[in-house]
What does this fold into?
Amino acid sequence: MHNFAYHRPGSVADAVKALGSASDGKLIAGGQTLLPTLRQRLAEPSDLIDLGAIGELKGIKAEGDGITIGATTTHAEVAASAEVKKTIPALAALAAGIGDRQVRHRGTIGGSLANNDPAADYPAAALGLGATIRTNKREIKADDFFKGMFETALSAGEIITAVHFPKPEKAGYAKFEQPASRFCLVGVMAAKTKSGVRVAVTGAGPGVYRSKELEAALGSNFTADAAKKTKVGAAGLNSDLHGSPEYRAALVSTMAARAVASAT
It folds into this structure.
């Protein structure tokens, strides 16, 4: 690692101040992506601002029509939460399947969303469930938050403080994972909401996206059979040693069918 100044602020305001004062500051919560990057000397931040001591960023609570989860809440805490299991069982199941036990006890929901890895699980949850990402400056709808591979709508000095998930009528998540990394080759969150059906896909393309083909099919018939019969286009999907675009397109329909089956 390169040398850097370390800060452990006690409030969001102090974190924002430390970030603004740094020439090249980086936020760290669970550190599941940033720490390996630092060890490999792929990043040289001047300052590291640790959010772990900020109590206002932690916790899970029922709010309005759904649940609100603090940004530094770990995957393990989401998976074990009775409130999440009661309100959105699919979200608890998704969190329980992230990485391994060590990752789930260190990684955080806010860190995952801010990083926006194209094969991460939480972006599919946020987009598929129509979540709202709250920051120290504003509220951002999930449809407007994800901008592409590792890119989000967050501006300089903006910190995720919480995520609000509205309660769906039905929702399910299924993924086909790469066995070594446990990241998604394809993951699908399918949800029937008050405003219609939402289907978010992660892993298949350069970033999380909504599948219009599956939303149209499931909007008419929210069944696993309808999802499985829906042909998804391969254009723009990833191609690597793990699978071709056509293979991933077929997996999208299959994972969508499994997601719907788990929801119903």
